[in-house]
């Protein structure tokens, strides 16, 4: 079945460091891929998405490219801020009738000043 | 923007009792809502898909009689954990799809912590 694997955390970085959170997926067909972020005490929010191969999703300085050949959707940011501290979830949707989302385990990012 | 609200944010109940969690879409109508649970350091696991006016569709391995889902209106879905036991302690999150928007525009609630003692 469809699944998402993302790197375990926590990831601890200093402010302005480069961030990469790896995400790979297994799916039949052509899923849409997402990154969600959960800030402390809040619900999940969509950070970015890509719906087809080679698409690049971007938002708030974060980017991720849909790589079909490596079945990956790694999240990157060139310079993290303390306010980026949160849990990041990679997810896919197979685009079926219900558009169910399948999530990875989440990666906690802690950015230190 | 669209907001999905869950209530309560956290609840403690005694073993054997039932507890209800509400999920409301505050400024849009949601024909479909989803219920997830999350164990510590694990992923969100989809429990069921709730469709307004019809029975919920449960994922494999989720007990229908234990996790009762009602989606009585376009803005409210409820999850009732019946005869709760300590192993039901978890973080429950709902999400709702905005029917006005095409594609996978889904908004999540803040989640509800359930502790069964």
Task: Describe the model.
The complex is a heterodimer of chains A (113) and B (117). Chain A has no helices and 12 strands. Chain A has 113 residues and is mostly beta strands. The N and C termini of chain A lie far apart (41 Å). Chain B is an all-beta fold. Chain B starts with a strand and ends with a strand. The radius of gyration of chain B is 13 Å and the shape is globular. The interface between A and B is medium-sized, with 24 and 23 residues.
H/E topology pattern of chain B: EEEEEEEEEEE
Name the chain pair with the biggest interface and residue counts per chain: A-B, 24 and 23 residues
Nearest-angstrom radius of gyration of chain A? 14 Å
Relative helix content of chain B:
under 10%
Biggest pleated-sheet summary of chain B:
7 strands, mixed
- Average pLDDT figure of chain A: 91
Report the structural category of chain A.
mainly beta
Helix-strand pattern of chain A, N to C?
A: EEEEEEEEEEEE
- What portion of residues of chain A belong to β-strands? over 45%
The geometry of chain A reads as globular
Q: Radius of gyration of chain B, Cα only, in angstroms?
A: 13 Å
Q: What is the helix content of chain A?
A: under 10%
Number of helices of chain A: 0
Q: Estimate the strand proportion of chain B.
A: over 45%
What oligomeric state do these chains adopt? Answer: heterodimer
Distance between the termini of chain B: 37 Å
Termini distance of chain A? Answer: 41 Å
Which overall shape of chain B is indicated by the principal axes computed on the Cα atoms? Answer: globular
Round the mean pLDDT of chain B to the nearest integer and report it: 89
Total beta strand runs of chain B: 11
Question: Can you tell me the residue ranges of chain A where pLDDT is under 50 for at least 5 consecutive residues?
Answer: none
């Amino acid at each position: 079945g469809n699944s998402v694997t993302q790197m375990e955390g926590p990831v601890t970085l200093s402010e302005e460091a480069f961030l990469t959170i790896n995400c790979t997926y297994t799916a039949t067909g052509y899923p849409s891929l997402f990154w969600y972020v959960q800030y402390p005490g809040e619900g999940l929010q969509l950070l970015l998405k890509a719906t087809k191969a080679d698409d690049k999703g971007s938002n708030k300085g974060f980017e991720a490219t849909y790589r079909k050949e490596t079945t990956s959707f790694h999240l990157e940011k060139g310079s993290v801020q303390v306010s980026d501290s949160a849990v990041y979830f990679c997810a896919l949707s197979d685009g079926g009738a219900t558009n169910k989302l399948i999530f990875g385990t989440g990666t906690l990012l802690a950015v230190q000043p | 923007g669209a907001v999905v609200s869950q209530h309560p944010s956290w609840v403690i109940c005694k073993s054997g009792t039932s507890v209800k969690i509400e999920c409301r879409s505050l400024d849009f109508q949601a024909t479909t809502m989803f219920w997830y649970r999350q164990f510590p350091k694990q992923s969100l696991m989809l429990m069921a898909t709730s469709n307004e006016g019809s029975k919920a569709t449960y994922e494999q391995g989720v007990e229908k009689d234990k996790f009762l889902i009602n989606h009585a209106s376009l803005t409210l879905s409820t999850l009732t954990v019946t005869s709760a036991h300590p192993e039901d302690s978890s973080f429950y999150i709902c999400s709702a799809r905005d029917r006005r928007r095409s594609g996978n525009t889904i908004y999540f609630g803040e989640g509800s912590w359930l502790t069964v003692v």
